[in-house]
């Protein structure tokens, strides 16, 4: 097990380097001059050229790339072009909010999604099942920004139960978490339901019924354990991407997370911040995948090789 | 059993969502931010919304509007000119000044006893450092083009010598980019100065939580009148709809640059006030005057007569603002509402000109614009109007970076542009000078205009200056190299108990002049 984990962590290094090369190349090739975007529309071209020189943007691609990787390997992710704040600091400052939002959203979606998914599978075609399928369909179709705005208008403006933005106090967290959880809950419901349905039709479940086992034990004990692997996959992937920042939710609710920081950095062609964020997300995502794989092994003895 | 337990957990969680964790209702005192500033509703604090995270508070480096909004409260300038928007010059850090007869040497007599937020005394050396810094930093160098040298013969005298007389020199000195910095603080902080600003203004910098908020607190050693408001918090709210709800809920006190579309909602709310002023951002259509068919003056004029500005104004802006017959708005030198004609729409004349130019059958072209500034709607209305004279225009909406790259090399035919300047010199130079930054791809060049611009810049008599600008407007109306459309209004929404608010520029909001009723 330990060897497995170590091997996966070592594999991170070529993955990160590959990602850095790809993103760096994309940023280099896409149109848009960071110096121009910093100084704005009104700056005369001569000043833009002076800034380009200062920023080392006129150096050939290989020189710029080597410089970046060299610094990165020494732990220096550079300073943001726009704010001149060290990239590592900005990421460290913005990440906690995103992590909190992701955790809260994930927790709520699992809390809602799994029980409903299980019940739907067990009571297939019942009213509960139909309702939850409709809910799942709606939640997947409704755009997050619309849902967020509607929640704000209904619960913040009209009912005045919750504040409309921010993510510090518990009450501020409610609406954004619900917005985020809605879509994920839908996915989890459907995944849980379909996975459970497959398992519930297996022979060993029939045997358990036949042996007279209590329903709860069959469902939660046998069926759930066997059907949970695809669900964990889905949860893992969603969680990983949420950690990259749910940009739309963050923007609507004014949450200073990593998602908005990254999108702004991309718009401003703030290369150091974009690259730093991408490296960071790649690492986090890989670790989440690793965690998911470890959980597989823990749940399914067949995978413990 | 397990199922009952999980059900119970869900119910408990749902219930706990609705219990107050502090007892305040969202109506009177919501939010409870982790920020150290006092919450809204207290009479010496104010919470202002920002639509983006600022990129730093170094006046000679940062030019984004949200940063400037904050910097006008942290820093003072040598003279006050409403953020370089007003020619009514008032003393700032300079109590008085003498101008030499040839208008080239300005001698400023500086206020004494002024201290920076870090306790250091303000001297002419800091003013000299500030201006010399502005002359070399890429963001501000173009504002210092007329400055030759700066001297500080003693601690309270500053002498600035110009290369040529420059009528707007004093007005410019009131801009954020000339915010006076402390030489010691800048040298010591080095690259991190942007996060540790030190000024002489009524408010000192307390903290900046990236993407979240900026907090300022009253400067007890302020050299001027003590402001009524002691604590300022700027909250980052990128979504205008959320910001509006926050204002309506009382979570914030002021919303600068509120969206025009929210104006009716704000006006209908008995607790809110909507302030508006004509803006100084001209929306216009530009042409590549070196590429056929727009190198033909008749074709450009045909477009001029084909565009019904009223329609464009209503369609793109909901009539919110004023029509423009030139890039000059009512406060600028040279403004004349009667000449040229405000809306020269004349479809027959347009068609006749097209035939004269040899394009009776029309042609196709592309209209370029940068995404995200309401310019799409302008392009759509213009596209429909051009169809009437046989021009089939396709709209190319480009991402900002791509847009700049293409414009800079002259890769465009028609474009929808916007430019914001509070004075005629900058506005007309940018748009019409041969080396004007908005002469994208250097396609336009008129030596008469260049000459007039230089003469006007050095002319101290406002009447003579106005005449020259009017001449320029006439020439450009004739050759139609750019078609001015309208000036959108600027809005500011706030709780109606907040007094002292003036809307001048999109970022000049000195909190020191505000107070609670």
Automatic annotation (TrEMBL), chain A:
Cellular compartments annotated: Cell membrane
Membrane topology: Multi-pass membrane protein
GO cellular component: plasma membrane
Annotated transmembrane regions: 9-29, 101-122, 134-157, 169-189, 227-253, 273-299
SUPFAM superfamilies named among the record's database cross-references: MetI-like
Keywords: Cell membrane, Membrane, Transmembrane, Transmembrane helix, Transport
Domain ABC transmembrane type-1: 95-296
Primary localization: membrane
The protein, known as: ABC transporter permease
Species: Anaerotruncus massiliensis
Top-level taxonomy: Bacteria, Bacillati, Bacillota, Clostridia, Eubacteriales
TrEMBL record, chain B:
UniProt name for this protein: ABC transporter substrate-binding protein
Record's GO cellular component terms: ATP-binding cassette (ABC) transporter complex; periplasmic space
A single MF term (Gene Ontology): peptide transmembrane transporter activity
Keyword Signal among UniProt keywords: yes
Coiled coil stretches, renumbered: none
GO BP of this protein: peptide transport
Signal peptide (UniProt feature, chain positions): 1-22
PROSITE patterns cross-referenced by the UniProt entry: PROKAR_LIPOPROTEIN
Entry superkingdom: Bacteria
């Amino acid at each position: 097990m330990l060897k497995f984990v170590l091997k996966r962590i070592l594999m991170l290094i070529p993955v990160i380097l590959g990602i850095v090369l790809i993103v760096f190349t994309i940023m280099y090739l896409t149109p848009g001059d960071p110096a121009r975007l910093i100084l704005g529309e009104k700056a005369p071209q001569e000043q833009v050229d002076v800034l380009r020189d200062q920023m080392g943007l006129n150096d050939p691609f290989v020189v710029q790339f080597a410089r970046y990787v060299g610094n990165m390997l020494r732990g220096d992710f550079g300073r943001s072009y726009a704010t001149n704040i060290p990239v590592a600091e900005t990421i460290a400052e913005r990440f906690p909010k995103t992590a909190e939002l992701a955790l809260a959203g994930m927790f709520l979606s699992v809390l809602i999604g799994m029980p409903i998914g299980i019940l739907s599978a067990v009571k297939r075609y019942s009213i509960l099942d139909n309702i939850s399928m409709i809910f799942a369909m709606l939640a997947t179709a409704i755009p997050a920004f619309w849902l967020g705005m509607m929640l704000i208008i209904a619960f913040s403006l009209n009912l005045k139960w919750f504040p409309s933005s921010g993510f510090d106090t518990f009450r501020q967290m409610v609406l954004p978490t619900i917005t985020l959880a809605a879509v994920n809950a839908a996915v989890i419901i459907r995944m849980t339901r379909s996975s459970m349905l497959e398992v519930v039709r297996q022979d060993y479940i029939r045997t358990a019924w036949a042996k007279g086992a209590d329903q709860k034990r069959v469902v939660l004990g046998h069926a759930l354990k066997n059907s949970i692997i695809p669900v964990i996959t889905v949860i893992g992937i969603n969680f990983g991407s949420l950690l990259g920042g749910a940009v739309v939710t963050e923007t609507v609710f004014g949450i200073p997370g990593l998602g908005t920081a990254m999108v702004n950095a991309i718009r401003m062609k703030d290369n150091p911040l974009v690259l730093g964020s991408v490296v960071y997300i790649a690492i986090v995502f890989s670790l989440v995948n690793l965690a998911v794989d470890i959980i597989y092994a823990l749940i399914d003895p067949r995978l413990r090789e | 059993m397990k199922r009952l337990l999980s059900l119970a957990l869900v119910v408990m969680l749902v219930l706990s969502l609705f219990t107050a964790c502090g007892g305040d209702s969202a109506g009177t005192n919501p939010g409870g931010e982790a920020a150290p500033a006092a919450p809204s509703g207290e009479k010496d604090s104010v919470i202002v919304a920002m639509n983006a995270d600022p990129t730093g508070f170094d006046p000679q480096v940062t030019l984004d509007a949200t940063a400037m909004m904050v910097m006008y409260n942290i820093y003072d300038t040598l003279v006050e000119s409403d953020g370089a928007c007003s020619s009514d010059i008032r003393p700032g850090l300079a109590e008085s000044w003498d101008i030499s007869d040839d208008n080239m040497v300005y001698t400023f007599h500086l206020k004494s006893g002024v201290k920076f937020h870090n306790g250091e005394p303000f001297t002419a050396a800091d003013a000299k450092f500030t201006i010399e810094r502005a002359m070399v930093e890429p963001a501000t160098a173009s504002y210092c083009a007329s400055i030759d040298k700066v001297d500080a013969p003693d601690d309270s005298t500053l002498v600035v010598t110009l290369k040529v007389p420059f009528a707007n020199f004093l007005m410019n000195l009131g801009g954020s980019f000339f915010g006076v910095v402390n030489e010691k603080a800048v040298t010591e902080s080095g690259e991190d100065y942007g996060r540790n600003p030190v000024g002489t203004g009524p408010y000192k910098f307390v903290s900046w939580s990236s993407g979240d908020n900026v907090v300022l607190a009253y400067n007890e050693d302020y050299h001027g009148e003590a402001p009524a408001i002691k604590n300022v918090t700027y909250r980052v709210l990128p979504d205008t709809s959320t910001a509006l709800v926050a204002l309506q809920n009382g979570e914030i006190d002021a919303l600068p640059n509120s969206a025009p579309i929210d104006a009716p909602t704000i006006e209908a709310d008995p607790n809110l006030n909507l302030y508006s002023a004509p803006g100084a951002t001209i929306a216009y259509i530009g042409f590549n005057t070196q590429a056929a068919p727009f190198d033909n003056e008749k074709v450009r004029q045909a477009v001029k007569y084909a565009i019904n500005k009223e329609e464009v104004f209503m369609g793109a802006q909901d009539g919110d603002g004023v029509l423009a017959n030139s890039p000059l708005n009512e406060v600028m030198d040279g403004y004349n509402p009667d000449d040229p004609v405000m809306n020269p729409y004349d479809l027959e004349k347009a068609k006749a000109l097209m035939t004269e130019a040899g394009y009776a059958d029309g042609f196709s072209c592309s209209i370029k614009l940068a995404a995200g500034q309401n310019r799409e709607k302008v392009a759509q209305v213009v596209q429909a109007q051009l169809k009437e004279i046989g021009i089939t225009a396709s709209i190319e909406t480009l991402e900002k970076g791509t847009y700049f790259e293409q414009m800079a090399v002259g890769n465009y035919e028609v474009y929808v542009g916007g430019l914001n300047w509070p004075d005629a010199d900058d506005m007309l130079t940018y748009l019409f000078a041969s080396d004007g930054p908005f002469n994208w791809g250097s396609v336009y060049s008129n030596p008469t205009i260049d000459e007039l611009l230089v003469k006007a810049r050095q002319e101290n008599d406002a009447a003579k200056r106005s005449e020259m600008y009017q001449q320029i407007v006439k020439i450009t109306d004739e050759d139609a190299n750019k078609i001015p459309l309208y000036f959108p209004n600027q809005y500011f929404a706030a709780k109606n108990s907040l007094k002292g608010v003036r809307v001048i520029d999109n970022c000049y909001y000195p909190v020191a002049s505000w107070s609670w009723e």
